[in-house]
Design goal:
mainly alpha, 72% helix
């Protein structure tokens, strides 16, 4: 019996190692069916297969790029991203586990800066888009800095350490609430601006 189990394990290891385009679920189904057809017991196959970790990160990245090359001729932006996910889902990849980054996201800081410059310089329309997004980010960052500053001033006033008389209201709780809302709104503003830029850079 140990000989049969060893043969099953060797077969599974080989298939996992040479897998280049199947999701973990599809690969498990294929391996199970192949071994059953070779005469091995399903219980033994499943027992060994469930102990084997299958990392599909490289496979899903490869399939992502492949789907993107095919679909980019018909779609772009968010619609392209959704179509790619649909195709990957049909191949057995779980959307909840999909951690594929687009080409722009995989660049380092300097490469991203260069890619944005190239995108901006490609035509006047793109230059206007980048310029507007940058202005949105600047406004959001200023708002974040301002709200954090007001938080500090309100706290210093509450501790009776320092008061420049620049509070919105005499009620400190109300000031904290307003500062928190402003901070959340401006932080969302910055995050949304980055997301919009990424969509254009896909």
């Amino acid at each position: 019996e140990d000989v049969w189990l060893e043969k099953i394990e060797k077969y599974i290891d080989k298939k996992i190692k040479t897998n280049h385009n199947s999701s973990s679920n599809m690969l498990k189904i294929k391996i199970t069916n192949d071994l059953i057809n070779l005469g091995y017991l399903k219980e033994d196959i499943v027992h060994i297969l469930n102990r084997k970790p299958i990392n599909e990160d490289d496979v899903i990245k490869k399939e992502y790029e492949k789907a993107k090359r095919t679909l980019a001729n018909k779609y772009n932006g968010k619609e392209l991203e959704n179509k790619i996910k649909e195709r990957l889902f049909r191949k057995g990849f779980h959307i909840s586990n999909l951690k594929v980054k687009n080409k722009f996201e995989r660049l380092n800081k300097n490469e991203k800066k260069k890619a944005i410059e190239e995108f901006s310089n490609s035509n006047e329309s793109n230059a206007n888009i980048v310029s507007r997004i940058k202005r949105l980010k600047v406004i959001g960052i200023i708002g974040v800095i301002y709200s954090i500053g007001m938080f500090i001033l309100d706290f210093l006033k509450e501790m009776e350490i320092f008061d420049i008389g620049f509070n919105h209201f005499d009620n400190l709780i109300l000031n904290y609430i307003i500062d928190a809302c402003l901070l959340i709104f401006c932080a969302f503003f910055v995050i949304k601006a980055n997301m919009i830029l990424k969509e254009f850079m896909i």
